[in-house]
Amino acid sequence: MDDLNRRILRELTHNARLPNTELAERVGLSPSACLRRVQELERQGVITGYRATLSPEAMGIGFTAYVTVGLNDHTKQGQEAFERAVALYDEVRECHNITGTVEYLLRVEAEDLIAYKRFHTDKLGTLPQVRQLVTHVVMGSPKDDRA
């Protein structure tokens, strides 16, 4: 991974729809050399895909929270059952198995506080593996590089 590849990746992270000619100009390569590098980064699995960044407000999302989840069943089967359950919930946008006093960190999006409460009570709170839920409401995101 050289500096040119890092610059290509940085530009694509900010705008994956950048035309190859503009990308090449920004990183100081010819268009053909730039395209070869991008294709090689894709082939190597460094670039795993391209996505659209959606506006939460335009999608009707007015509430975001991080939820820590402590399990009462620490077996592999218990963790897998929890992971299968949350994979089905549209409200769960990210699920991370973490170290520390709890097992999981979820990023949850909902229309509003009422919708989140319904999700918390009727879905997460009913899972048999769950021992503890702690909600951290997002009040703002001054930096968010997930694109």
Write up this protein:
- It is built from 5 helices and 4 strands.
- It is α+β, with helices and mostly antiparallel strands and 147 residues long.
- It has a 4-stranded antiparallel β-sheet with strand order 2-3-1-4.
- It is elongated.
- The model has no long low-confidence stretch (mean pLDDT 95).
Overall average residue pLDDT: 95
* Multimeric status of the protein: single chain
Poorly predicted ranges (pLDDT <50, ≥5 residues)? none
Shape, per Cα inertia axes? elongated
Strand content: 15-25%
Radius of gyration based on Cα positions: 20 Å
Reported for the largest beta sheet, the result is: 4 strands, antiparallel
Q: Give the total of beta strands.
A: 4
Order of strands side by side in the largest beta sheet?
Answer: 2-3-1-4
Fraction of residues in H or I helices:
25-40%
Order of helices and strands: HHHEHEEHE
Calculate the terminal CA-CA distance, rounded to whole Å. 21 Å
Structural class: alpha+beta
How many helices in DSSP terms?
A: 5
Short description:
The chain is α+β, with helices and mostly antiparallel strands and 147 residues long. 37% of the residues lie in helices and 20% in strands.
Furnish the topology, listing elements before pairings.
Layout: H1 3-14, H2 20-27, H3 31-43, E1 63-71, H4 76-87, E2 92-97, E3 104-110, H5 113-122, E4 130-137
Antiparallel strand pairs: 1-3, 1-4, 2-3
Helix pairs in contact: 1-2, 2-3
